[in-house]
Amino acid sequence: MFKINFDFIMTKKRKLAYNFWQLNKRFTTAEKIQLVLSYILRLSIIIAIIGFLIKQHWIAIFVSLCALGLSFMPAMIRKNYKISLPMPFELAIVVFVYASVFLGEVRGFYTTLWWWDIVLHGCASVILGLLGFITLFILYYEGQIRASPKLIAFFSFSFALAIGALWEIFEFSMDIVFKMNMQRSGLMDTMGDLIADAAFALIVALVGYFYLKRKRKEGWFHKILAMFFKTNPQLIRKEFFAKSKYFFRRTK
Q1: Residue 123 — pLDDT band, cuts 50, 70, 90?
Q2: What does pTM read for this prediction?
Q3: DSSP string spanning 27-52?
C-alpha cells in the first residue's frame, strides 16, 4: 500500500523556506528585481521554443536554445571558476543575449531596426573591454605581471576587438553552413560591426587608462570595479584594500 512520507515533504518545505530566507538575506531589493527580470526573459525564450516546436521552425528552435544556454553563462562561470558576477553584470549579460540572439536573429530586429546591430556591438565591446581590463588589472595588482596603464588599456581594447572579429567569423560560418544570412549586407555589415567594436572598445580603454593614471579613484568606472571586487574579494589580496586609500570610496 502506498504511503506518503510526510517527514520527507516537511524536510523539503523547510529546505525551500531556508533557501528563500537566504535569498532574501543575500540580495537587496534592486538585485531581487534584476534576478526576477532575468528569469522572465529566460521564461519568454522557453515559451517561444514551445511555439516554434509546434510550427516546426527548426532553425528558430536551434537559435533560441543557443540563446537560452548562453543566458546561463554567468552561472556556469560561478560554478566552474568560482567567480561571481555582480547581479547588474548578470542581468546585462542575459539582456544582451536576449536582445542579440533571440530578438535580433529569431524575431528579426536586425532587419527591421537598422541601428539594432550597431548598438549591440557597442554594448558587447563595452562588456568585453571591461572584462579584459579587470583581468589584467587583477594580475597587475597581484604582482603576477608588470604592466603600465598603457599596456592594460591596450589589452582591454585588443581583447574586445579580437572577440568581435571571432564573432564575425562565426556569423560567416553560420551563413555558409546553415544559410542563415547573419551578415545580411556582407562586407559592409562586417566592417560596420568591426568599426563599432573598435570605437566602443577604444572608449573603454581610454576611460580605463585615465582611471589608472588618477590618484583618486572615483566615478562610474571605479564603481564598476568596486562592485566586482566586493563580490569576489578572493581575487585580490587584502593588503591591496588597506594600501589603496581611495579605491573603495563610496562603495557602501
Answers
A1: very high
A2: 0.76
A3: S-HHHHHHHHHHHHHHHHHHHHHHHH
pLDDT in tens, 227-241: 888 888 887 766 555
pLDDT digits (tens, 9 = 90+) for 136-178: 888 887 778 888 899 999 999 999 999 999 989 988 888 888 7
Structure letter (DSSP) for residue 250: T
The dihedral of CA 88, 20, 75, 252: what is its sign?
Answer: positive
Burial 107-140 (b: 16+ CB within 10 A, else e): eebbeeeeebbbebbbbbbbbbbbbbbbebbbeb
Domain chopping of the chain, boundaries: 1-101, 108-213
Q: CA–CA separation, 230 vs 251, rounded Å?
A: 9
| Selection from 110, 111, 131 nearest residue 120 by Cα | 110
3-state secondary structure 127-196: HHHHHHHHHHHHHHHCCCCCCCHHHHHHHHHHHHHHHHHHHHHHHHHHHHHHCCCCCCCCHHHHHHHHHH
User: What is the longest distance spanned by two Cα atoms in the chain?
Assistant: 75
How far apart CA 128 and CA 43 sit, in angstroms, is: 26
